[in-house]
Design brief:
Largest sheet: 4 strands, antiparallel
Structural class: alpha+beta
Number of helices: 2
Distance between the termini: 15 Å
Radius of gyration: 11 Å
Helix content: 25-40%
Strand order of the largest sheet: 2-3-1-4
Strand content: 25-35%
Order of helices and strands: EHEEHE
């Protein structure tokens, strides 16, 4: 399953770090951050709970940039 989320991130470098962090999160098959559109597209692994995975992505990204927000 693939879902698109609206995000708030301040710089392209931070967006790149968020993408790498999301890709390493358990339950994520792939993740792409579009800095210009302020969107994160996440494809979940089979059987993963999208809400739980996104909570973990949000927590991981907050460690990189306190201002990061994602609309769940």
């Amino acid at each position: 399953m693939k879902k698109t989320y609206k995000i708030e991130v301040d710089c392209a470098n931070c967006a790149n770090k968020m993408e790498q962090t999301a890709q390493k999160t358990e339950g994520v098959k792939s993740a792409v951050v579009n800095f210009m559109a302020l969107k994160m597209i996440v494809e979940f692994e089979e059987g993963a709970d999208p809400k739980a995975v996104m909570q973990q992505i949000r927590a991981n990204c907050k460690r990189i940039d306190d201002d990061f927000e994602i609309e769940l």
